[in-house]
Specification:
With about 425 residues, the chain is of the alpha/beta class. The chain folds into three domains: about 25-110, Winged helix-like DNA-binding domain superfamily/Winged helix DNA-binding domain (Arc Repressor Mutant, subunit A); about 130-185 and about 230-340, 3-Layer(aba) Sandwich (Rossmann fold); about 345-420. The chain has 15 helices and 16 strands. A five-stranded mixed β-sheet has the order 3-6-7-11-10. Strands 9-12-15-4-16 form a five-stranded parallel β-sheet. Helix 1 packs across helix 4, helix 2 packs across helix 3 and helix 14 crosses helix 15 (about 410-420). The termini are far apart.
Length: about 425
């Protein structure tokens, strides 16, 4: 095994580009096959264009293309510059490319080895900047929370231990999780794809990953890696045991990484835990090894298991009763447990005032909130942190519908209440 060429001294330095095919840590035959598929897919292929699509330095790309040329799979049609030839595929190459594509349809950035990926995740985790109380306070500044709650979630993020939040719905568990993610500074490097036993696992996707500017010029880093904001991945009722493993597509012949791999270096939120289409105990058992060891085991369609790093900040959120949902053995493996209580009347008032001010409705009669609290008491409704926002939004909807300026009044709140809760005081 060659030494990894993604060594970094801190999380902001880019991975070092390989200088030879051997330094990619990938089999030469695998690289040549990917180069052939690249020529196959590009009618105007040049060394430069192939290098850009494969995310490899031009000297390495040219050596691969020259190999294909000597194997009489492609031909040279001309030269655009020094070591920048124009290539076209020959009939023999066309036949081989079609056979390769039937097995694996991947054409794109060259993968990195599993070892290089594991090393990069480990190095970036070791050099990440700690999360200070100030960062936590700034992240939670838009939420009205008790001091003990702020302290607990801050400890969870600072320690990178898992957090299990439970409590009635509508009191901010998801909002807290999203806010905690924003408290984590820095950016990370992830690969476009990983290679294992000539199999390809696609990691980067535009839905879960937001690419940032590298600022390192054209040739200053290994372009098989992409610099992103720390990812935030939220999964809910759609999660199953199957979605936690490699997703293999027989149509294209390669894998999509599961959500926990895509969340490495960032935050993974298991929302609405217990409402998945699978027994909660089975899901909990699936998390035991990642929680204990910081590694996960994934299965190729050949049956081979591979070990991958498990380094997201893991947050569970549920509004179900914990009795019968989780056992003590699982809870012992959680870093922190936190009950998210309904707001007190004073907290409800603070939330309402902040929401109203955010929509230009500040300066209203404070007795209006007392009117709302009275309605809750009359209808024996529990207070919810989300409901001041929802009521204000309904009020704004009504004002827009009536084509009148937004205004907080008792009549408007009454109408918003009825439209939101669906019942009259009568």
């Amino acid at each position: 095994m060659h030494e990894s060429h993604c060594t970094v001294s801190n999380e902001n330095l880019p991975p070092i580009p390989p200088k030879t095919p051997e330094e990619t840590q990938l089999d030469f035959g695998f690289l040549a096959d990917l180069a052939l598929k690249t020529v196959y897919a590009d009618a105007n292929c040049t060394t430069t264009r192939a290098a850009e699509k494969m995310c490899l330095p031009e000297p390495i790309t040219e050596s691969l293309l020259q190999h294909l040329y000597h194997e009489k799979l492609i031909e040279i049609r001309g030269q655009n510059g020094f070591h920048n030839h124009r290539y076209a595929i020959l009939d023999r190459g066309w036949q081989r490319a079609n056979r390769l594509l039937e097995i694996n349809g991947y054409i794109g950035p060259t993968p990195v080895s599993l070892q290089a990926y594991s090393n990069m995740v480990s190095q970036q985790n070791k050099t990440r900047k700690p999360v200070s109380p100030e960062l936590i306070e700034n992240a939670l500044s838009g939420l009205v929370l008790p001091e003990l709650t702020r302290q607990t979630v801050g400890l969870a993020v600072h320690s990178r231990r898992s957090l299990f939040m439970f409590g009635e719905s509508g009191n901010g568990k998801t909002s807290i999780a999203v806010s905690l993610h924003s408290a984590q500074p820095g950016e990370i490097w992830i690969p476009y794809a990983i290679e294992v036993d000539n199999q390809i696992i696609k990691v980067y996707d535009q839905h879960n990953h937001s690419q940032t500017e590298t600022g390192n010029g054209n040739n200053g880093y290994d372009k098989r890696w992409v610099k992103i904001k720390r990812p935030l991945v939220i999964v809910g009722g759609e999660m199953t045991i199957e979605t936690m493993d490699l997703v293999y597509s027989r149509m294209v012949g390669y894998y999509e990484a599961p959500f926990q791999v895509k969340a490495n270096g960032g935050t993974l939120v298991i929302d609405d835990f217990g409402r998945q289409r699978v027994d909660p105990a089975d899901l909990l058992n699936r998390w035991i090894i990642p929680l204990e060891r910081g590694v996960d085991y994934l299965t190729l369609h050949t049956g081979k298991k591979i070990e991958v790093p498990f380094e997201p900040l893991l947050i569970f959120a549920t509004n179900l009763n914990l009795n019968g949902l989780v056992d003590d053995a699982f809870l012992r493996r959680m870093g922190y447990r936190l009950y998210i209580a309904p707001p007190t009347p004073d907290q409800y008032k603070s939330i309402f005032q902040e929401v109203a001010a955010a929509h230009g409705l500040d300066g209203h009669d404070p007795n209006l909130v007392e009117f709302l609290l009275k309605r809750y008491a009359e209808e024996k409704r529990p207070l919810r942190c989300s409901e001041p926002r929802d009521l204000v939004h309904r009020l704004l909807d009504i004002c827009r519908y009536l084509d009148q300026p937004p205004v907080l009044s008792r009549d408007m709140l009454e109408l918003a209440w009825i439209n939101y809760f669906g019942k009259d005081r009568a």
